[in-house]
Amino acid sequence: MTAIALRQEGPTELIPVQSETGAIISMIERAARDPAVDVDKLRQLMEMRQQVEAKAAEREFDSAMADAQSKLRRIRADAANPQTRSRYASYAALDRTLRPIYTDAGFALSFNTEPAAENMVRVACDLSHRGGHKRHYQIDMPADGKGAKGGDVMTKTHATGSAVTYGRRYLLQMIFNLAVGEDDDGNAANDTGELVSAAQVKELQALIVEVGADIPRFLKYIGVESLEDIRAKDFKRAVAALESKRGK
User: Given this model, what pLDDT does residue 187 score?
Assistant: First the structure.
């Protein structure tokens, strides 16, 4: 509630100024206490009050969301998918960044699953705000146990758990409009997140043997744990690093 200073006969005091929403609610409450107001009119007034309060809660929700998103930055991908040869931000990485921000803004998340089509899992999330407004989000994820190339790579139980994990991660990114990738002042615009191909891995392996490179030191220099984790955009840098060892 805001306040303004008014000049009175005594010392200057801060007089509360009631918000428009508060004024409407106060008017409804006064009318509700009037014994001359009939039951139907009272019911209409109570419904009006609920509508006013719901609209105020929605505005507070939108304001909090805008505030939370203004504090978010691009999240670094911290995990690799060997099937799609790509990198992504794990749920743990998203949670570490997001939770302090969205809880400070008054938000709370609640995940669940809902009925879905065969071989699908519907992951749902209710995003509630301390002001009273809530929004429902959902996403359908395949749970057929198929891999990127169409083969059976996991059991139904494993597939269901994987679908839920992916669904929670995707919903979290979608709800807060979160971007994942390197944040390097625009230099990551050309980075698709793809990893080196199988042929490129073999080329690096051959080059490592040819120049007698120290594999652990090389991987540490590139910033990965295995050759398969090297990003496609870093392939030329990796080759150049190995070539620099030739003849040493």
Answer: 38
Question: Which pLDDT tens digit goes with each residue over 132-185?
Answer: 999 999 999 988 776 555 556 578 888 898 899 999 999 999 999 998 875 433
Nearest CA among 192, 195, 200 for reference residue 229: 195
Joined together, the tokens standing for residue 183 give: 């944040």
Contact 240, 230 (CB under 8 A): no
| Integer Cα distance of 78 and 176 in angstroms | 19
User: Cβ atoms within 10 A of the Cβ of 236, count?
Assistant: 9
Compute the C-alpha angle 128/132/137, nearest 5°.
Answer: 30
Q: How far apart are CA 40 and CA 46, in angstroms?
A: 10
Of 133, 82, 141, 71, nearest in space to 106 by CA? 133
**Distance (Å) of CA 87 to CA 18, 22, 76, 182, 191:** 52, 50, 10, 11, 11
With the C-alpha atoms ordered 87, 91, 92, 93, is the resulting torsion angle positive or negative? positive
The position carrying tokens 């590139």 is 222
Q: What is the pLDDT of residues 55-83, one digit of tens each?
A: 999 999 999 999 999 999 888 887 777 66
Concatenate the DSSP letters of all residues of 172-193 into one string: HHHHTT--BS--STTGGGG---
What is the SS3 assignment for 110?
strand
Tokens of 85: 């040869």
The residues with which 4 forms a beta bridge, in sequence order, are 15
What predicted TM-score, i.e. pTM, was given to this entire model? 0.59
Give the pLDDT band of residue 12 (cuts 50, 70, 90).
very low
